[in-house]
C-alpha cells in the first residue's frame, strides 16, 4: 500500500503530482522506475581522460550545460601543462572544437544503438519503451550541446571577421 500526505486538501479524482527534484532520466529510472519524455534535467555522463564529466541540457535547473569541470579535464588532456593560465571561464576555440567532435561521435553511436533496438510499435514492452525514451533524452543532451558549441564557434569566427574589417 502506498500512502501520500498532502499539506493541502485534494478533491476526490483530482490529479496529484509528486516532484522528484531535478533528476536526469538515469536516476529516475534506476531509483523510481520511470523516465520523463522531455526531461530538462537530463544528464549525459561523458568519459574524458579517464574521468566522468556531466553534460546537461540547456536550461537545466541542476547546473550549467558545460560546467567548468568539462573544460578543465579537456585542457588537462589536450595540453601537457594543463593549458594556458587564463581568465576563469574563458574557453579556447580548440577546446570547443574537440568537445564538439567528441559529442558528434557519441551522438552517432547512440543513433546506431537506437536503430538496433527491437520492434517499434504499440505492442512494444515497457522496458523497450523506457530504453528508447532514455536514448532520446541522451541524444537531446548531445544535440543541444553540439548546437551550443556551434554557436560558440560561430561567435569566434564572427569576431575574427569583424577584427579584419
From TrEMBL:
Domain of life: Eukaryota
InterPro entries hit by this protein: SET_dom_sf
Protein name: Uncharacterized protein
Species in which this protein is naturally found: Triparma strigata
Upper taxonomic lineage: Eukaryota, Sar, Stramenopiles, Ochrophyta, Bolidophyceae
